[in-house]
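Researcher: Please translate sequence to structure tokens.
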Amino acid sequence: MVLGYIIYSIWNSINETLVGYFTDRTNRFWKRYDKRFPLIIIGGIPAILTLAAIFSPPYLDPISGVWIYFAWILISTCLFELFFTIVSLNHYALYPDKFRIDTDRRKAGGIRMALSLIGTAVGFMIPPLLITYGDRQSYTNMAWIFVGINMIIFLTIIPGHIESKELRARYVIEQEEKERISFWKTLKIVLSQKNFVVVILIFLMDAIIGASLTASIQYVAKYLLQAEAETSILLLAGFILGALGSLWPWLIFSQKIKNNRKMLIIGVFLNTIFLLPFMFAKSLIGM
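Model: Translation complete:
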């Protein structure tokens, strides 16, 4: 498993960089078929199906079939990351193109955050009701139930990602005016921007914290609290309620401050401070 995670982590870092570079290269099809929309459609359904594949390995003897399991998990996880990157990268890239004013971007970001939190809540609250510790088939059933849910949600987001004729024309004009730069030169330019690198590192640390907190909920319920899988719902409830309750006040505050740099510093500082109590929480109430 450790080897698999190492290979996946290396692939993840290379995958996102290359997808970002190649999807931004000038393409004659942009003017007719959009720049981001086709890639979101191409990546969406495979991303959903490969996520289900992670939880649907073949039934084999765990000793003799260990390398088959290893290959299955590694390949399905890397494929999911590839397709998910294609979708998410182009989805986020559309925000500055569709929302040209900072006020609109913050408002759209607030709505996106609220929907993301609701999705996180559903994603963490429903699986514990569908799985049973020690029953591998329950995990597979859970994954395919979410395939159906995700397919429906994916269909609903399609209209919002269609790019207007004006936006397509802007893509063409912008790319015609730009000098074509190689991948390595582009990477060098990016890494030379010290402030940008610091922001990237901050988001990296924040992503590690968020992923660690949410991914550890099941383990906290099972091993620390020695409770059933459903207990993870209660652990997540505090996070979701706190985030949803504070979303609107923070949005109003950011619109008033109108300083993204200052908001980032405040957020990072508070996020770090309020991680400390987790070191001392040993009970369900404490968590």
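Researcher: Any highlights?
Model: The chain has a mean pLDDT of 81.
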